[in-house]
Amino acid sequence: MPETLIEIDIYKKIKKQRDTYVTLLKDILKICKESYMILDMYYSRLNHKSDAMQLSVIFLTSILTCIQAGKTIEESYFENLMIQNKTTLLGINPEEYSTHNSMIYDSIILGVSTYASLALSIMRYFKWDDKREKANEYKGKFLELHNRINYQLDILRPWKHDDFFENHDELYYKSTWEDLMTNLEKEYLNIIDIKKYLFIESEKLLTETERIRFLKKLYYDQIYRNTHEQKIKELSLEHKRRKKNIEQENIQLSNIDDIDDIDDIDILP
7, 24, 158, 214: which has the fewest Cβ within 10 Å? Predict the structure, then answer.
């Protein structure tokens, strides 16, 4: 700890400036983490919707391919019947059956093709893929910002402890801290600029209704986590109490056994 008045003044100034920047950086980090989680939920939602739509198109297209292959086989079969002037196994005229069946096939093909075209048009209209890529990009930039903030907090962490101020050269702290503050102020301004850019860009992706819905989900998830953690703590404490009681009972039983052994020894002639 600093001992002279000058050292004490330097110490107090450093601690005050350090605490101020730590508070500011932690507040920014908290807000950025919240925005990151909102973007993560938004990305997951877009990813789920896009994947569901694309998989349904792939599934129906595969079915359509099977139907078209079956139609080709059936047409070949009925052509052979008509050439041979025969009926089907059920006694149906192949010309009448072929006309009726062709209408069913055409209706199915038309329905699947319309759905696939509509699904792709919806995805392009709402720009799900573009929004998903942007959300993923901003998530990565938020993580980079988190690392930059945590790096500055790590630099400031040693200045929190009194043991760090064991050097009796008063100019050492002043010069070292001034150099650190010069770099910290520049980095803090860069962090603010990056935060501003990311918040503006991420707000363009989400509507106010979506943001409020995600914030509510974050709030309820936090309540659930807190409740779950509290239950775990209670179970842990209960386990420790039971373990302690068992140990005490074992000690008591051991003492009783020792007393019995002593009594047996006294009884022996």
Answer: 158
